[in-house]
Amino acid sequence: MDDKYKSGIFEFLTARRSKQFAFLGALVRQPSENPPGECGKIAACLYDNLTALGFSVRRFPEPDENAGINDHGLSNLVVRQEFGEGPTIALVASGDTAISGQDWTHKPHGAEIDDGKMYGRGVVASKGVLAAYVYALLALRNQAENLKGAVELHITFDSQTGGDLGCRWLLANKLVAPDLVIAAGTTHSLTTAATGCLFLEVEIRGRSAPASLPDSGIDTLEATAKVMAAIYQHRQDYSKIRSKVEGIGSPTIVISQVQGGESPRSVADRTLITIDRRLIPGEDPTRVENELTTLIGTSVVQVPGVLCKVRRKGLSQAMVPNKGTAKLVETFQHHAPDILGKPLEIGGTPLDTDGRHYSNAGIPTVLYGVGPKDPGAANISGPDEVLSLDDLRRSTELLAVVLSDLLSTAND
Hints:
By secondary structure, this protein is of the alpha/beta class. It has helices at 3-15, 17-28, 40-52, 127-142, 167-172, 220-235, 285-300, 325-340, 355-360, 389-406; strands at residues 57-60, 76-84, 88-94, 112-114, 117-119, 149-156, 180-183, 189-194, 196-205, 252-260, 270-279, 307-316, 345-349, 365-367, 386-388.
């Protein structure tokens, strides 16, 4: 890629910097917390803004066909920009965000800019990523000469709840089939591996009785306490297991929800526990599930008469590099020093990512987007989530150059 071509990309983006900030601000000002997952307004905002930028936006499923697909009748948005025959590269990001919570000093949906930084829920994860992807694609469209292939935007609204109705649904229904994928990540590192997720639901049944006569009932909360104690004791062993992938660390397990004991004057007769077990690359999900099921079973039998069922509520395999990942990594690393002033750090992440759905389908996938290397420094999921607008600038420039290189006719 010659300097004149690269300069054309930078000049295009520089001239539209304020419009990119306005695009991001409009997204941040639309609440899209998940749960509850009511993302209709952010989806409409994206549809209108993308259409105004000249993109053709498809919705899957169509609005009149999505009854029963999800609770809010929401469609996934797909944009496809073609430059001729060649590979398809998908840019994957979501419009839903974590819950805003308390203790903000800036308005959670204010998109306030202060000292070169924008504050707001989702400004990094992943509305800032969307702003980078959209404007990188605009720059590519402006410099389309000598490009072959296509770039797609896959915009979903269930990243906070696992991606089953978004990326996984799009892939399973063969509505998208990219050759390479770039999904939401950070400005200063390139992620090639991520943990998987195993979700289990444990139902414990007993027999209700008056609180004054507890021996006449079968107390499920007593059994639940034993299960919880066993799981947290078992969790201590995970520190002995370490992933070989930098940045992944050890497996984790959390009891994320407990429901039961609805009556304040009775022995609880039914309890539900939700377990979130993160899988490091190389772990066998079946072995992990069997191990936990056995642990739960040996715990509940300590309370005579209790019945227990363990159900798998969801499974996402860990994201790992595959045969084509090296090409993506090499292209990013070739251009990163010129734009970022240093190579990108390569590693893994323990965080959730929609990228795992593409990786598990055999598609070479990396994570790259906006924000600091450490998500904690951006306050993601905490108060005052913040994005350096200079990170947004540099990320957009690098993405545009990388996409141009991957689709260049010089690679034929």
